[in-house]
Fold this sequence. Notes:
Chain A contains six helices and no strands. By secondary structure, chain A is an all-alpha fold.
Amino acid sequence: MERPEEAVVQRTGIWTRPYVMGVVFVPLSLLGGLLPSFSLAANLYVLLLGVGLLVAGMSSRMPRISTPEELPPGTAWWLLPVALFVVFEVATYMGGSTFHSPTLSLLADPLLDSYPSRSAAYFGWLTVFWGMVRR
Amino acid sequence: MSVTRTLVIAGFIAAALAAVALEWVARREGSRVPRLGDVAAVIMRYEVGGLPVGRLALLGFWLWIGWHFLAR
């Protein structure tokens, strides 16, 4: 049986509209910011959200944003920030990640201690995750 | 602050600034540099034997990033 086109658009449209998921992610991020690192609650919360989004991303029922078939030649420029990051991350990791030679994780720890920055990090993580799910 | 710590922080900031600059260039009309989202989308289309390994790898990596920074 054929469904009216309007009904189909309305059913899939709500999640695909800009800012709708942003509104959903705000309370989730504010809640996540309350959970301290290394706590069982934080582990379960991140895994619950992450696995949920991973499953949504693997589902073929999720409407996806159209993407180019091929990438332009300028794609190689993206290797520059990636290589720069990898060089410093690997070098500091091999050095044992100390105060004088910290990995990104060690540098981020004090920044993620406060509630506002922790909530903002949750929001960024969820927003990027959702962007990947939609691709 | 030691010289090595300053150098490492400068390195990470340079990598982040380079990524922001590239995304800015990519969003200009007629740019030959793709957006990061488009690069990710093409990687996510990679399949082996019908299995979406590219998609699974990137989504799994981002799940690990959240767990590593927010839970561990």
